[in-house]
Design goal:
Elements lengths: L3 E4 L2 E3 L5 E7 L5 E10 L6 E7 L4 E3 L7 E6 L4 E6 L8 E10 L5 E5 L3 E5 L2
Parallel strand pairs: 2-11
Antiparallel strand pairs: 1-3, 3-8, 4-5, 4-9, 5-6, 7-8, 9-10, 9-11
């Protein structure tokens, strides 16, 4: 099974920046949607941003104007540039790929998560 690995998490100060990246352990025939989600204890996982195969992006209202999602189709990677970080951005961030195989089977893959902590 394809494994997704996030990187770039860590500690940042309010107003600071972090860049998260997600990479797949093996080649993927086609990635329809790449997305970033986050989750804090006691709350459901929520969508932060996504980018489709057309390049169309969607952002949660809480991160609009601060976060930017982008995909590199040649490398099968997705990044989340996070600027002007706020303490409420603190969460475990997960990447997710919605993919299709050569045989047209749709499969979703999730990363293990990377901790982002925003604190002074």
């Amino acid at each position: 099974q394809v494994q997704l690995v996030e990187s770039g998490g860590g500690l940042a100060q309010p107003g600071g920046s972090l860049r998260l990246s997600c990479a797949a352990s093996e080649s993927i025939f086609r990635i329809l949607i790449m997305g970033w989600y986050r989750q804090v204890p006691g709350k459901q996982r929520e969508l932060v941003a996504m980018v489709g195969d057309s390049g169309r992006t969607t952002y949660d209202d809480s991160v609009k104007g601060r976060f930017t999602i982008s995909r590199d189709n040649a490398k099968n990677t997705v990044t989340l540039q996070m600027n002007n970080l706020k303490p409420e951005d603190t969460a475990v961030y997960y990447c997710k790929y919605k993919t299709t195989t050569k045989e047209n089977v749709i499969r979703d893959y999730w990363g293990q998560g990377t901790q982002v902590t925003v604190s002074s």
